[in-house]
Amino acid sequence: MTAARDRAATADEAEDLALDGLRWLAGSARETPDGGLAWPDLRSDDEPDPMFYGGTAGQVLVLLEAWRHFGDDSYADLALRAGRGIAEAVDAADDDSLYFGRTGTALVLRALQRELGDEDAGTAADRALTVVRSRFDGTRWGALFELMGGNAGIGLGALAAGDPELAVLAVEPYPRTAEPTPAGVQWAHRTGVESRLHHISHGTLGIVASLARVGAATGRRDLVELALAGAADVVARDVAGPEGFLVPHSTPQYRPDLIDPVSYGWCHGPAGDAQVFRLLGDVTADPVWAALADRCWHTVTHSGLPERLRPGFWDNNGRCCGTAGVLALACDRIAEQRDPHDFARVLVADLAARAIRDAAGARWSNFDHLADAGDLEPRTGWAMGNAGIVRELLRFARLSRGGDPRYALAWPDQPPVPVGPGGS
């Protein structure tokens, strides 16, 4: 670690940084004609985006977290205003997925109904799920066939939003589309590609998570068994055993000109693999999955992150493929296993050191080693911006004080921790 980050961050520091991050988020919102709020798309500063990955729905997630954490109703008011724009966009969306489309917005709207009593949001959630169901072609909703943009995420989101029938409808195509491998099964993440991806965001483990959760919730043992076959394929690809766990991004390597063969975050690395293994442990009560999650954590903590060891090694602060996603797992382990706080404090100190802080608040710039610009403009969204980072900072602050480790709204691809306070 460099001297700037070789220290233990405190709960107060994390909370103060989160407050500054929330202030910048609130100042980045745009008011809609009906008095609602909207945030711009991850890819464009000109167009508001209602969806979860980079837009307004992801802001609701962190605003609910701030409301629960601080007990400050102003955050609930902001979340309700954000919900108006999301509800208005239900019919206009051209995507039905969890991260990029209607299913994710339906889940966020359902949370506004359940947590804040917004019945209009609940009605809009029902309408969104009805539209999702109507657009199913019998096998899929579009080119993507995985967690973030395809069936697996729709299954997870529908289940969490209270529609188990839609959840089963979404995952039932996986048995007939599975491809046998020497160790288990795998799936193509999208149409027309040779490579097979392996991890949670776009690969086999994301499908495994959906099959396991939906199967367990609906009594479909066949779906759980298929999930275990998918997990077996990924486990067989490990190149870091016996203490660690590391599986390449894809086989053969997908887009090798742009994508590293291995990474360590939530999306394509052991930080996300461990979340699936945690889920399989909950579903099966088999200790082998906890051991695999431990091996993932060993690899993560010995990888060198959050240092930027070389171009492309660790360029992102965010929740999807950066430091905040690893912090989420670190806090899960603190809550469940009473792990030491040491590595979580390193991650928070790194986020603090990399934050841009001024009168407008705090935000983070990621780095694109393939772009001429290098440092990218700070973003507001869940995946690569403030929403995903601030949510984890608030949880770390609570855990550091012996508080409740649960999120205000648990996203369905991260298993909830046991009810009760975490270790201090």
Question: What do these coordinates show?
Answer:
It is a single chain. Helices cover 49% and strands 4% of the residues. With 424 residues, it is mainly α. A hairpin with a 4-residue loop joins strand 3 (179-180) and strand 4 (185-186). The relative contact order is 0.13. Residues 1-5 have low confidence and may be disordered.
Which helices and strands occur, and which strands form pairs?
Elements: H1 11-28, E1 30-31, E2 37-38, H2 56-70, H3 73-88, H4 102-116, H5 119-134, H6 151-160, H7 164-171, H8 173-177, E3 179-180, E4 185-186, E5 196-197, H9 204-218, H10 221-235, E6 250-251, H11 270-284, H12 287-301, H13 323-337, H14 342-354, E7 356-358, E8 361-363, H15 386-400
Helix pairs in contact: 1-15, 2-3, 2-4, 2-15, 3-4, 3-5, 4-5, 4-6, 6-7, 6-9, 7-9, 9-10, 9-11, 11-12, 13-14, 13-15
Taking the sheet with the most strands, its summary is: 2 strands, antiparallel
The overall pLDDT, averaged over residues, is 94
**Helices and strands, in N-to-C order?**
HEEHHHHHHHEEEHHEHHHHEEH
Class by helix and strand content? mainly alpha
Shape, principal axes of CA atoms: globular
Helix content: 40-55%
In total, the number of strands is: 8
Short description:
The protein has 424 residues and is mainly alpha-helical.
List the main descriptive attributes of the protein structure presented here.
424 residues; mainly alpha; two-stranded antiparallel sheet; 15 helices; 8 strands; 49% helix; disordered N terminus
